[in-house]
Amino acid sequence: MLNSKFIYVILFCLSLGSLLGYSQKPNVIIVMADDMGYGDLGAHGNPLIKTPNLDNLSKESVSFDNFYVSPVCAPTRASLLTGRYNIRTGVFDTYSGGAIMATEEETIAEIFKDHGYATGIFGKWHLGDSYPSRPQDQGFEESVWHLSGGIGQVGDVFNYYKGNTSYFDPVLFRNGEVFESSGYCSDVYTDELISFVENNDDKQFLAYLSFNAPHTPLQVPEVYYEQYKSLEFDSDYFEKNGQYVHEMNEKNKEDARKVYAMVSNIDDNVGRLISSLKKKNIYDNTIIIFMTDNGPQQYRYVGGYRGLKGQVREGGIHVPFYLKNVKNQKNTNAIEAPAAHIDVLPTLAELCGIELSEQLNLDGISFAKSLSENKQLKERPLFFEWQRSYPEKYRNMAVLDNGYKLIGNTKSHNESNQFELYNLNIDPFESNDISEENSEIVQKLQSKLDDWYDDIMSSEHIKKPPRTIIGSPNETHTILNRNDARGMQLIWADEQMYVRWDLNIIKKGNYKIICHFRKPIPDPGELIIRLGTQNFSKKITANNIESATYENVLLNEGEVALEGWYYSGWGQKHYTPFYIELIQL
User: Fold this and answer.
1) Distance CA 375, CA 368 (A)
2) What family does the Swiss-Prot or TrEMBL record give for this protein (predicted)?
3) Percent residues over pLDDT 90 in the chain
4) Neighbours of 431 (CB within 10 A)
C-alpha cells in the first residue's frame, strides 16, 4: 500500500510537469520529397499538377519564399538532421563512399529522443547503410528504410534486380531486420508512419517521412499515371507570365507526366496522414514541415528558376518549405528572408522547448521567433557546393549574402576562376550577370567563400572519413554495397572499376566472407580479397559463378581497406565484387 508521502511526491511531479507544459509539447513530422522541384506544386503557380492537400497545407503554414538546400540529396539530409553543413559530417556526395555520416554527429533524432520523444524514420535514409551510420544508430527508435540513395539503385542489393518494378513491394529494413513490404513504396512509408503515430498515444513523437519519389526510376501506380498520360505542355503560359522556361523534348514531357503522377501520389499520402492526425485529435498540436531535398533532375516547370538538381543555381537549391505550427501559433505570413536546411534543427528544438548545447557547433540558426512573433530573420551568408568528389574551391560553389549571390563556375583545374554575380532581390531568376560592374562585391563574396571553404575542409570528419565498423554486436551481418564503396568517382555498377570499403575491425575473430558479382563470371579463375596486410585467395574452377564464399577467415583488429578482385589469368579481364557480406561466426 502506498504511503501518503509517496502519493504526495507523485502528485507534485505530475503538477510540475503540467506547469512546465510537458503534456503540451508539440509532435513533429518532417515530410521530405526526393527530387521534387519548386515548380512541382499547384501552390507555386503550376496549373498542370494536382496537389490539393499540399496546396491546402501551404495555406495553413508559414511558407518560406526563399528556402535553400544542397544541390543533391545526401548532403541535404545530413544538414537537415544535424544543423551543420554536410562536409562537417563526412558527407560530400551521394555515393562513392561520400554519403556516410559520421556516427559522432548528434542528430535531431538523438536530441529529441533524449528529451522524451519517440522517434521514427520511414523511407529514404541515404547516410550510410552499415553500422554505425544506420538510422537506428543515429537516434531513430523505429526505422523502416531502404538501402542506398534510391530503391533499386546499385547499392540496394535487395531490389536492384527487380528493374522497373522495384518501387512495388520493395524489400526494406525494419529496425535492422529485412522484410518484404506490400504495396507502392510511398504508400508503404505513409502506412508505417500512421501506425507509428497510433502506437505512441502516451508520448510526443518526432517522425521523418522521407519519400524516395519522385526520384528516378519514374515508377508509379497506373491509376496515378492515368491522370497525366494525355497531358500537353504549353510553355506559352509561363512565358506570358515572364518566367524562365526550360526547353522540353518529348522525353522531358513524358518524364514530367510520370513525375506529376508520383507527386500526386505523395499529395494523397500527405492527405491521409493529416486525416489520421485529425482523427486522433492531435493535428493542432503537431508541427508539420513539408520540403524537398533539391531541385528537379529533369527539365520541366521550375517556378521560373534556372538550373536543375546538382547545380547551385536557384533551380537546383531553391525549394518549397512549409511549416504548419501548433494551434496557438497563428502567424502564416510568408517569410522572405533566406533560410536553409541547417536551420531546421535549431528551429524545431526552440519550438519544442529543447535547449541545445553550444558544443553541437551548429551552422544553422533558429527562425522560431519569426514564426511566433513575426520577427525579422537574421541575415547571414549561406553557402552551397557539390561535385562528384571533395569540394574544389569555387567549382559549382555559391554564396548568398544580403541579396547578392556569387556563383563559382570553374570547370577544371586548368581554367581561371570564373564568377557570376546576381542581385536576387531584383533578379530572382538569375538572368542578368552583374559581376563585371561590381568587382568589389565579387571580391567581398569570394573572400567569404575562401574563409568558409578553409573552415569546412578543416573539419575532423572530412579529414578522417567515417568507417564501417566490423565486429560489433550491433551488426553481426554487414552488407558492403557499392553506394558506400570508395574509389573512383564513378564506381556505380562498373565491374572493372577499382573499389574498396574502409573498415574498422574492432573484434579479432572468425568471419564468413561472401563476394557477389553483378553478372555471372564466365571463366574459371582466382578471387583475391585483401584486408590491409591480410590476403586471402581462392581458386574458382566453375564457370558462370555469381558469388564465392570464404567460409572461415580469421580477421585481425584494425583500420583497413577491404579490396577484392577476380581474374581468369594475367592480362585477362578482371571483375570487382558488386557487394560483399561479412558475417561474424
Assistant:
1) 9
2) Belongs to the sulfatase family.
3) 80
4) 10
State how far the Cα of 491 lies from the Cα of 498, in Å rounded to an integer.
Answer: 8
pLDDT (mean) for 18-42: 82
Q: Place 179 in a pLDDT band, splitting at 50, 70 and 90.
A: very high
CATH number for the 468-584 domain, one of 2.60.120.260, 3.40.190.10, 1.20.1250.20, 2.40.160.60?
2.60.120.260
C-beta of residue 150 within 8 angstroms of C-beta of residue 215? yes
Residue ranges of the alpha helices (H) in 423-581? 439-456, 460-463
Q: Which CATH architecture has domain 4-371?
A: 3-Layer(aba) Sandwich (3.40)
Query: What pairing do the DSSP bridges indicate for beta strands 118-124 and 142-146?
Result: parallel
Query: Taking a C-beta distance cutoff of 8 angstroms, is the pair 315, 243 a contact?
Result: no
d(CA 96, CA 267): 33
Comparing 210-214, 258-262, 497-501, the range with the smallest average pLDDT is 497-501
What pLDDT is attached to residue 374?
A: 66
State the pTM of this model: 0.93
Using CA atoms, how far apart are residues 472 and 475, in angstroms rounded to an integer? 6
- Count of other CB atoms within 10 angstroms of residue 55: 16
What band does 379 get if pLDDT is binned at 50, 70 and 90? confident
